[in-house]
Structure formats: structure tokens, C-alpha cells
Design a protein that fits this description.
Layout: H1 3-13, H2 24-27, E1 42-43, H3 48-51, E2 58-62, E3 69-72, H4 83-87, E4 90-94, E5 100-104, H5 124-138, H6 141-156
Helix pairs in contact: 1-5
The structure holds iron/sulfur cluster (2 copies).
One iron/sulfur cluster (SF4) binds at residues 18, 23-24, 26-27, 29-31, 88-89, 111-114.
Amino acid sequence: MDRNILLKAYAAIGARTPMFTDCGALCGAVCCRADEDGQGGVHLFPGESAMLRNCDWVDAVKPGSFAPIMTCIGSCEREKRPLGCRIFPLTPVRGRSGRWTVRLDARARAMCPLVGSGIGGLDPEFVRAVRDALRIIAEDPEGEAFLEKWLRLEEEYRKPLW
Ligand code: SF4
Ligand code: SF4
């Protein structure tokens, strides 16, 4: 995907975060830490791997089921962090009209204290900005195909275990 599309999506979110204050202070920034196996990580949108090539805070970029997965050292240059970090704890989903919108990511349930208050507990400006950013991505055919794959993966986490 063209670098300029990614930059436009980054700019749509800008410095907005899920809350007015630093939510990382609530949880010790748990979403920036590797899990117990040292795994975890963020799926990179098409074209993002190249943009992270010279970032010394990137620990590794490894192949994933549908996209490369980045792990980091637990801190980063905020203006360079990938889109998966910028949108968390939200995730893309198609609304009734078929347009892309957002909902809370099922994967956030296990770690993010903001989930308990629902999407209404997040800064509405952040929610709007993430939705706008994902719609920018969806204007690109490769970007839209990626959102579909992202959605299918997230839906796996919504399925009951038994
Ligand atoms: S887990 Fe949730 S509350 Fe904690 S830093 Fe991440 S988004 Fe913020
Ligand atoms: S790149 Fe930054 S925002 Fe993303 S997981 Fe690492 S430290 Fe957190």
C-alpha cells in the first residue's frame, strides 16, 4: 500500500489516544508488553514493514498468518508506531450499511481496563479519528482486503471456546 495512504491514516488519528489522559498509567501500558512467552506483537498493515526499517525500538518483524508481526522493546517513537498500535483497543468492522466503522477489539478483553466501560467510555474524538483512518485505508483495494483479513482474525476471538 502506498506510503502516503498510511501517512494520511496516521495523520487522521494524530496524537489522539483512547482517553484524554494517558491510559497507559492505568495498566502499566500492558498492551505494549510481550506476553509470558515473549510473543505477542502487532500485525503490520501493507507497506508498514518498510517504514519501520530503521527504527531501533523494533525488536523483530516476523511472518504472521496474514501479515508480518512486529514486536518492539516496549517503548517507541510515538509518531512512528504502526497503525495497529494507534487504533487499539478498537478494531475495524463493517457497519449495517457496509461502511467500515469500529468496535472494541475482542483481544482487548483480556488486558485493557477500558473495555469495561464500553466504546462509550473512550474519547469520542479518538473513536471518530480511528474510524476515519480506517476508511482512508479502505479506499485502497489492498488496504480494504487487509481490513477484511484483520476482521476475520478478530472474529475468531469472539467465538465461544466450547
Ligand atoms: S491496555 Fe488499554 S488502557 Fe492499557 S495502555 Fe493499552 S489501550 Fe491504554
Ligand atoms: S510500538 Fe509503541 S505503541 Fe506499539 S506496542 Fe511498541 S511501545 Fe507500544
